[in-house]
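Hi W., the 6-O-phosphono-beta-D-fructofuranose complex you wanted:
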Amino acid sequence: MVRVSFDYTNLLEVEGGIRESELSDLRPRLERATDEHLQDPPGFTRLPHTRDLLTPSKALAEEIRTSGATDFVHVGIGGSSLGPVALHRALNHPYYNALAERGGPRMHFAENPDPNTLHAILDLVELESTWINVVTKSGSTAETMANFLVLRRALVEASGEAGYRERTIFTTDPDSGYLREIAEREKIRTLPIPQDVGGRYSVLTPVGLLPAAVSGLDAEALLSGAASCANEIAERRAEHPAVLGAAMHYLMDTSRGRNIRVMMPYADALERFAAWFVQLWAESLGKEGKGSTPLGAVGTTDQHSQLQLYMEGPQDKVIELIEVENHPNDLEIPRAYEDLEGVGYLGGHTVAELLNVECDATRRSLAEAGRPNCTIRLGTVDEAHLGYLIYALEAQTAIAGGLYGVNPFDQPGVEAGKRITYSRMGRPGY
Ligand SMILES: O=P(O)(O)OC[C@H]1O[C@](O)(CO)[C@@H](O)[C@@H]1O
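Structure:
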């Protein structure tokens, strides 16, 4: 059973928070935005209800896992990597790649075109048994294509053309783009990214499903978790707490001047999940002079780094805590040094207890200092809970687009820099 809840108490009750009247004034617009979202559903809303993309992803993953693969390099950037990285970091062993006994290949992510990272990957992988998965919706993102070209040459050198073709996958647009053209030329196997699903909404397509299944995660549970959220939203519409969150964050930004949304999970596992959300919220809503700035943090680590600013700095932030009720692999803190009062008190508690008590302490101290905050509570961190939360935040972001009056599915602002890069790098026509 998936247990995910959204607690907005400290947005409503703290001084400087949202007034009930503001929320009720906004309600008709929230209902309209939600109705529009449900009547003309964007492509990503279909994903939890179909197995059309899961079946080929799982079949290919099984082939890779049983092929004796030692390494799997996922090549992509932005929406073509943030989701897969988030899932990997949340659900696989943090030192997975260092484990002697592992249930699948080591996972590597070539995102930035940083020679040092690429060199490190090439240094680590056993090229004769390495698979590469090149993920780009447009089929021409410079960073991804550069990383691909370097890895391709290494694979060809190690295993010849045939080995490269056999152990390479392209995850891309079903019909168009340069990567599609290369796939046809070189007979490379492909998985589709549906045309109506943009990169930052694509983690539940083969973009996320294939790497998840390759590393042994339960991709089916990811989709069923998402489906339970989708069904709840279809039923409760603007009353659903994830949808209500669109109104809460919109109001904090536009009426309270709190235009920074800090997502702070109290779990190392979710650090990259916050990075996934940052792209979703930033690229979807930051346009036409509108939008709020999402930032990622992690508790307790950032209590010892940023909390001072959150408590006493400018009143421009909403802190969104993510609390995990049952942390996997909890450990008891042993009793020792009981005669030393600054140490002995910890014995007999658990590590997760300390983490969650600190989450609560942050929530309370922020509220007492008049700093609005909210909490997402997850029963645990597993595929179903993350599937639910991914869908909830995608729907919330899309509906927030309706409130801001912007198109949450385009990103015109990133084109200018791309054009300059193409021209400087000598791409014909630029
Ligand atoms: O999947 P692609 O086409 O390589 O794009 C990667 C990312 O680049 C962007 O287009 C921004 O430049 C994102 O929207 C996208 O997620």
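Residues 142-166 form the longest helix (25 residues).

W.
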